[in-house]
Amino acid sequence: MNDKRNDKRNHEPPDDPQNAGPADAVPPVDARDVRLSAALDGEEASPPHPGPEPGGSVDDPRSDERRSAIEAARDILAIPPTPLDDLTRRRLLRAAVQASPAAHQRSAIRLRRVTAVAAVFAIVVLAGVAIATLNHQSSSSSKAARAASPTTTTILDLHEVADPLVLKARVLAALGSQTGAAVPHGPESPDAASLDTSASRAASSGTSLSGTGPSGVSPSTSTPAAGEAAAPDRCRSAVRVPQGAVARVLATATFHGEPALVIVARAQSRTLVYVVSDPGCRLLSSQFFAQ
Amino acid sequence: MPDPPDPSDEDLARRASLGDRTALEALLARHLDHVHAVCRRVLGHPEDALDATQEALIAISRGIGRFDGRSRFTTWMYRVATNAALDEARRRGRRPLAFEHLPERSTGADETDAVDARLDIDAALATLPADYRAAVALRDLAGLDYAEIATVLNIPIGTVRSRIARGRATLADRIGNRDGTIERPTPRP
Question: Which of A61, A77, A143, B74 is the most exposed place for a label (fewest CB within 10 A)?
Fold first, then answer.
């Protein structure tokens, strides 16, 4: 079928408009040339019908001469072009291999890895910042809590408490300040300004809050911060408290000008107050009142 | 112990399609000259042929995953190469080197015979359209059979037969006319 169609096309001009060559100059091909050429390649078409072949038989003498010419042309056409030099070959190969999807995939994988590492790094940094921020806030909260809780770190200064009424009033004020109550003003209710922290006083006066305990513990020099931490335990064992009551250092004070610690303890509905010397933890005064 | 046989084109192509860069490079290196030969013969111009070869190799590299193995790898490869060459011919609108632009032929040395033949080929085929030259190149350079050429060029096998005959006859006529010397214009002063 194709052969029939092809025989019709043998003398047709090129019909492909995309041909880049001089289509108009294509010489008509002779049917005998087609047969001879195909015979050289073993690709002869079966004759569509018996009878004399168009263009003459391939067995006549003229065909032999033409066959030789076409065979020579075929041999020449089989000569390969000048081979490429090695540099050009390498350049062509490198460009082609780099254009492969695998190369792009490797680049993409490399990019993804870099991105992942950067993302992990960013997450770690952000997490670190967040943790640091939380720690800072927590530390600030703890400091604020410690500042608001004399039982833990902050010791108030009740100043001169030789007068029992003043002692009572200031102890009540100090206890009230620890629970958030307003600090009363006046001798019966000393003002809040008089309730300085011992830490600030110690820092400004350079005195230490540490002392020699009755248990014979040697006095130790400490920073105000360390003193704050050590104050609750100082001299607590120097006072006798009822069974079940827990003494704690409420504040620093002076007793007739002598540095002292004010220790309180709760027993049932009473508040026990002890004033001991500091250092020395010698009992200077005591009282109790209902609260 | 004998060396293991070289992997087939199809095996290399399969590995290359799976991302094996070494297999791809081996495959391209094995056939680079064949691709270039077809492009050179179709285009008739060294620089255009280099461009088309580059395009063909890149197209093979990118499209290796689409080679399904149902035909020979070379059939698929030559289709890509021929399309690249024909695209280049259309893009440039440039004909093969005209006869008068060919370099002067050397005389006397045996080693120049092949060069002379190449010049004759370019000159003779310059009168043919690019896809005629493609049919001739695929047969006489690449060694494809007519059915494969029909597949590559997407034309009937009879058309393949006539185009090859036309190319050979054109060259045969030129050889027959040159009576020992190639027709060449006198160089201009």
Answer: A61
